[in-house]
From TrEMBL:
Family from the record: Belongs to the UDP-glycosyltransferase family.
Species lineage: Eukaryota, Viridiplantae, Streptophyta, Embryophyta, Tracheophyta
Pfam name, any one: UDPGT
Protein name: Glycosyltransferase
Protein origin, superkingdom: Eukaryota
The entry's keywords: Glycosyltransferase, Transferase
An example Gene Ontology molecular-function term: UDP-glucosyltransferase activity
Keyword NADP: no
Organism: Acer saccharum
EC number, as in UniProt: 2.4.1.-
Length: 487
C-alpha cells in the first residue's frame, strides 16, 4: 500500500491554495521519487459565491493536471442544510458556519477516509483549524492528526493563549473597550482588534475557538506557513510553553514560505497579460499595487475615497477592484456577481488617471505583479498568504486589514516585523482619501520609506535562505516528513 498524507482544508481560496502548496512542497522535498502521495479532501461550501467556486475548481483542475501524486476528493453537498445556512448570512457569520460545516461533513469524511484506507496507508491527517470537528473522525482511524495553521506564528501564539485569557476572565473581549491584551512573544493587541469571532464569549463560534485551541495542544503537531527568523519571538514563546501555561507545547514545524511562486488560476485571462505588459512600460519601483484578497470588497463610498486618494497622490498604481455589495455597507467579504466597475468610481477617474494607472476587474496575478520590477509598494488586506508573497518579492506594504485576524496581522507587520506602514481608519471605519494619499506618498518616498524597504529586502533574502537546502524551513520539513514516516 502507498503511504498517503491526507489534507483537509476549510472552504475559502486562501485556505485551499495554502494547503495545496504545502502538499506540493512535501512532494518536491522528496523528489524525484517521493515516498508519499497526497490526498486532498474538498468540502463544498454553500456560502461561497459562484465565481469563487468556479475559481477554486479551475485551480484544482490545474493542480490535478500538473501532478499525478496529488488527488482531490470532493465531499458530497450537505442536503438539506440546516436553517443557519441562509442566503442572507452575513460575512460575520462565516466562521461559525465553517465550523458547523465541518461537523456536518463528519459522516462523509468518515466514508472518504475509509475508502482511502482501502488502497493506501494513511500516515497523517493534516487539517485546517476550522476543520477541528474532524479530529473526532481521524481518532477513530488512529491517524495522527496535525493542524495546518494558515496564519503565522504570531497569530498562532495569540490563538493558543486565547484559551488562557478565556479562563482568566468572565467578561467578553467586546466589553474590554480599548484595553490592550498582553500575549507572550508578540506585541500587545487592542481587544477591539481581535477577530470578531473571539469578541463575544456567549457566541457559539467563540466556544469553537476555545475548543480548537484546546484540541491543537493535543495534536501530533502544528504546521506553520512561516520561517523562524521572521517571527523569532513568537516561535520561541510557543516552544517554551508560554502560550500554553500548565500544558506541554505541541511540536511546531515552520516550513514556509510554502508558495512555489506560481499564481493559481483566477480568471485573469487576457487582462492578466495586459496588466503585466503595462507594468513592463513603467519605471522601476514606481507602481503601488492595491489588492485585497480573494474575498475583500468595499462599498461604493470607500471605493470613491480610494480613487480620490490615488488621483491626488499622483503615484502610479495598479488597482484590483470588485463590485461593491448592494446595500449593506458593513460587508467587507463575499464578492457578488461583477458589474461594470466604472459606475462605482468618481466620474472621469479612469480617463484622468489612464496615463499612470490601471484598474483591473476582480483579479490580477498577484505573485507575478509583486515580483515585477516596476512594483514598489503593496496596499494589502494583511491576509497571511499576501503578506508572505509581498515579503518574498521584497515589496514594502501598507497594512489595511478588513476581516478575520487581519487587524492582529497589521500589528505584527507594523510593530514587530517592521515591514509595513499602517493605514488608519476614521472613527466610522472609513479610510479617507487624505489618509491613503499620505501613506502611499510616505511609503514611496525615498527617505521616509527607506527603513521599511530595507527591512523587507533583508527578509526576502532570509526567506530564500530558510527554504534552501539546510535552511530552517527545509530542516523543519525534513523533521516533519520523518514524523510522518514513523506513524
Amino acid at each position: 500500500m502507498a503511504d498517503t498524507i491526507v489534507l483537509y482544508p476549510s472552504p475559502g481560496r486562501g485556505h485551499l491554495v495554502s494547503m495545496v502548496e504545502f502538499g506540493q512542497l512535501i512532494l518536491k522535498h522528496h523528489a524525484p521519487s517521493s515516498s508519499f502521495s497526497i490526498a486532498i479532501i474538498i468540502p463544498t461550501a454553500p456560502f461561497e459565491s459562484s465565481s469563487s467556486s468556479t475559481g477554486a475548481e479551475d485551480y484544482i483542475a490545474s493542480v490535478s493536471a500538473s501532478s499525478s501524486m496529488i488527488s482531490f476528493h470532493h465531499l458530497p453537498t450537505i442536503n438539506p442544510l440546516p436553517p443557519t445556512f441562509s442566503s442572507s448570512s452575513s460575512p460575520a457569520e462565516i466562521p461559525a458556519l465553517t465550523y458547523e460545516l465541518a461537523e456536518l461533513n463528519n459522516p462523509n469524511l468518515h466514508k472518504t477516509l475509509m475508502k482511502l484506507s482501502e488502497s493506501s496507508k494513511l500516515k497523517a491527517f493534516v487539517i485546517d483549524f476550522f476543520c477541528n470537528a474532524s479530529f473526532k473522525v481521524s481518532s477513530t482511524f488512529n491517524i495522527p492528526t496535525y493542524y495546518y495553521f494558515t496564519s503565522g506564528a504570531s497569530g498562532l501564539a495569540a490563538f493558543l493563549y486565547f484559551k488562557t485569557i478565556h479562563e482568566n476572565t468572565t467578561k467578553s473581549l467586546k466589553d474590554f473597550d480599548n484595553k490592550l491584551l498582553d500575549f507572550p512573544g508578540i506585541p500587545s493587541i487592542p481587544a477591539k482588534d481581535m477577530p470578531v469571532a473571539m469578541l463575544d464569549r456567549e457566541s457559539k463560534v467563540y466556544q469553537c475557538f476555545v475548543d480548537t485551541a484546546t484540541q491543537m495542544i493535543k495534536s501530533a503537531g502544528l504546521i506553520l506557513n512561516t520561517f523562524e527568523l521572521l517571527e523569532e519571538r513568537a516561535v520561541k514563546a510557543i516552544l517554551d510553553g508560554q502560550c500554553t501555561p500548565g500544558e506541554s507545547a505541541p511540536p511546531i514545524y515552520c516550513v514556509g514560505p510554502v508558495s512555489d511562486g506560481n499564481d493559481g488560476g483566477g480568471g485573469g485571462g487576457k487582462f492578466e497579460h495586459e496588466c503585466l505588459s503595462w507594468l513592463d512600460s513603467q519605471p522601476s519601483r514606481s507602481v503601488v499595487f492595491l489588492s485585497f484578497g480573494s474575498m475583500g470588497v468595499f462599498y461604493t463610498k470607500q471605493l470613491k475615497e480610494i480613487a480620490n486618494g490615488l488621483e491626488s497622490s499622483r503615484v502610479r498604481f495598479l488597482w484590483v477592484v470588485r463590485t461593491p455589495p448592494p446595500d449593506d455597507e458593513t460587508r467587507k467579504t463575499l464578492p457578488i456577481t461583477d458589474l461594470s466597475i466604472e459606475q462605482f468610481l468618481p466620474e472621469g477617474f479612469l480617463d484622468r488617471t489612464k496615463d499612470r494607472g490601471v484598474v483591473v476587474k476582480s483579479w490580477a496575478p498577484q505573485i507575478a505583479v509583486l515580483s515585477h520590477d516596476s512594483v514598489g509598494g503593496f496596499v494589502t488586506h494583511c491576509g497571511w498568504n499576501s503578506v508572505l508573497e509581498g515579503l518574498c518579492a521584497g515589496v514594502p506594504m501598507l497594512a489595511w486589514p478588513l476581516y478575520a485576524e487581519q487587524k492582529m496581522n497589521r500589528a505584527f507587520l507594523v510593530d514587530e516585523m517592521k515591514v509595513a506602514l499602517p493605514v488608519v481608519e476614521s472613527d466610522n471605519g472609513l479610510v479617507t482619501a487624505a489618509e491613503l494619499e499620505k501613506r502611499m506618498t510616505e511609503l514611496m518616498d525615498l527617505e521616509k520609506g527607506r527603513a521599511v524597504r530595507d527591512r523587507v529586502t533583508a527578509l526576502r533574502e532570509e526567506a530564500a535562505a530558510a527554504t534552501s537546502h539546510g535552511g530552517s524551513s527545509h530542516l523543519a520539513l525534513t523533521k516533519l516528513a520523518e514524523s510522518f514516516k514513523r506513524n
